[in-house]
Task: inverse folding
């Protein structure tokens, strides 16, 4: 089994910054991709950012230029630096990992989600 533990959400004023972390643990052989998705009330879940082995990244259009995803491979941890936050960034942010486990089975895993609220 693989577990994802997220941290770093909270309340921030417009224009402020937050940094989210997601640490993967368990029966991990290799992680091929890690990323962040978000879901606001009444809206569908959307891609925020994903980082794929080899270093390529993909960002949602609404966060390009403001958010940066990075990863510490040694710690199986992915970070999301969020700058210039806007009220429309308010959502539950969830981490997702594409994992090849030690029994050589591929699966997707999700974290429990962390609330980000941007409000004055």
Result:
């Amino acid at each position: 089994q693989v577990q994802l533990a997220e941290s770093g959400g909270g309340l921030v004023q417009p224009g402020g910054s937050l940094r989210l972390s997601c640490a993967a643990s368990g029966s991990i052989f290799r992680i091929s991709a890690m990323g962040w998705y978000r879901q606001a009330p009444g809206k569908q879940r959307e891609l925020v950012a994903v980082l794929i082995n080899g270093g390529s990244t993909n960002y949602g259009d609404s966060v390009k230029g403001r958010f940066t995803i990075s990863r510490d491979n040694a710690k199986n941890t992915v970070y999301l630096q969020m700058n210039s936050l806007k009220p429309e960034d308010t959502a539950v942010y969830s981490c997702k990992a594409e994992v090849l486990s030690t029994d050589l089975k591929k699966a997707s895993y999700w974290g429990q989600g962390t609330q980000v609220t941007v409000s004055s």
